[in-house]
Amino acid sequence: MGTTQLESVQEPKYWHLKTVLSEALDSDFAVGEILPNERDLAARFGVARATLRQALEQLELEGRLQRRRGVGTTVAPPRVGVAVAAVQHDWADGGDTDEAWQPVECTTATAPASVAALLDIVADAPVHVVRRIRLTHGQAVAAELLYVPTSSVPELSAIDVPSGPARARSVLRELHRRGLDGQDRSVELGSARADDAKELDRLPGAPVLVVTTRYFAAPGTVAVSVATYRADTCRLTFGDSGALEISHDEQVETRQAS
Amino acid sequence: MGTTQLESVQEPKYWHLKTVLSEALDSDFAVGEILPNERDLAARFGVARATLRQALEQLELEGRLQRRRGVGTTVAPPRVGVAVAAVQHDWADGGDTDEAWQPVECTTATAPASVAALLDIVADAPVHVVRRIRLTHGQAVAAELLYVPTSSVPELSAIDVPSGPARARSVLRELHRRGLDGQDRSVELGSARADDAKELDRLPGAPVLVVTTRYFAAPGTVAVSVATYRADTCRLTFGDSGALEISHDEQVETRQAS
DNA sequence: TAGTGGTCTAGACCACAAA
DNA sequence: TTGTGGTCTAGACCACTAT
To answer: Do residue A254 and residue B116 have CB atoms under 8 angstroms apart?
Structure first.
């Protein structure tokens, strides 16, 4: 009862560890540098490996670290700002710019029910499913499934082009011809499905930002896109003016200044 | 060598578990229902508790489950769509609507360096820091820090109102008088700081969507807001028309239809 | 083949909420 | 007081990458 209980806040070890590591990253490591392996780090801090991993996982979630099986843990560069809102939208590849969407595949199938609801069509109506990958600085940052009801692009006969990138481009071209009256967007947290994970060079279940877009034209919804962005490396930007510019370097400078 | 290796895909146990649980949630559980406790569930599936927890964590990340210490694990309702883009912006509370931002506190301090860079001011310039909580259906879904350089609201003397909600409202009122020329926004994944976690009724480190907004008026940036939304319960919506409407129920219907 | 991160186990104790 | 989820340990083995 009379015992003084200084410093008994009971902060979890992994939380404290995360703070310590975060500060060490700011001051002692350069971007791309390799950290000691998990077993060594755990021993150095006197904790079990699982506890150390809990701290690393959080830092990876915050985009500070990058871990690759068989290789090691490296200090991640600041997140890339990827523009999402783009008023202009011509359904094109984007060429060599950093806005490049690269068509990969195109099949025809029935949409998942949730997508069908957004498209305002019956659940078993046929849709073109266009698979696209978004590249930034040569890295895949997003994988998209674009659902286009066959009724949205009536000019396109299913027979004239076989499945593949060429057919994807045909669908996009027809979509472009229809024009665009507006769009609706939502962003939420998800975990990568196996196929998305593969495209994004991540393990299944990796955290992703799921951007669902509804495209409007003429009488109704003309297409729905479900794009999954790597949450560890991406910062989605919206809005009128240019992208926000934040970097870890700036944060470091400030911390030292205070 | 000659052994047939059927079904050896080596899918991790927790991944398979997650799939099984997810399907069980769709078919056998109602929203709000309490699941068996972790020890029982682990025993039932013949795995260690840590493995079972790995599956539950993913489902919670996807907004399917809600876990509360001392209480149990319940089936989460579909994510709430919260509008973020709102063209109109009068800095008001929002009254009784579901868009309510509730001012909580207001102090004057120096901004963190990353924020100072966005505001385009020197790192040690004084700013008003307004703390607001966003409520939807009576639940706190976001906690915000709004940074307003004292130079942005010159009419406001630091002395006339003491710290507190009243002062926060004064700053917002002055901000409203300045008008707004545009805004810039970015969304990224983060983990809740201790103070945000407390406001959002989550544990520190919980996954959050960090929305950084830059407000422009007259000659430059007039304010910067950093808002953290609960990633487990929120779906951020943007855009011209109304919010997207997705529900788990619809997804269930579809799955059964296919 | 050696070294890395990823998965998994079978325990233990703690913090918290509700009865 | 009881039961829940949260933290932590000290191991083990696996999948993958590089050499």
So the answer is: yes
Q: Phi and psi dihedrals of B232, rounded to 5? A: -75, -35
Are residues A155 and A44 part of one domain? Answer: no
Please give the pLDDT value at position A250. 39
Would you state the pLDDT for residue A212?
96
Q: Which of A47, A75, A103 delimits the end of a domain? A: A75
Structure confidence by residue, pLDDT tens digits, B65-74: 999 999 999 9
Does B198 lie in the same domain as B230?
Answer: yes
* Interface test with chain A among B54, B79, B188, by most A beta carbons within 10 Å: B188
Residues B70 and B86 in one domain: no
Q: Give the bases of strand C that a protein CB approaches within 7 Å.
A: 3-12, 14-18
A-B interface: how many C-beta pairs under 8 angstroms? Answer: 175
What would the DSSP string read from start to end of A144-195? EEEEEEGGG-TT--TTTS-SSHHHHHHHHHHHHHH---EEEEEEEEEE--HH
Residue B92 sits in the same domain as residue B56: no
pTM beyond 0.90: the answer is: no
Q: Is the CB of B203 under 7 A from strand D?
A: yes
* Amino acid letter, residue B28: D
Contact in structure between A133 and A104 (CB atoms under 8 Å): yes
| Domain contains A93 | yes
Question: Domain for residue B172, yes or no?
Answer: yes
- What is the C-alpha separation between B71 and B32, in angstroms, rounded? 13
Judge whether A1 lies within some domain.
no
Give the model's pLDDT for residue B88.
59
Which regions in chain A score pLDDT beneath 50?
1-8, 241-258
* Domain end marker among A75, A107, A130: A75
Residue B1 is assigned to a structural domain of this protein:
no
Domain span at residue A41? 6-75
Q: Distance, in angstroms, between A126 CA and closest chain B CA?
A: 13
A9 near B CB under 8 A? no
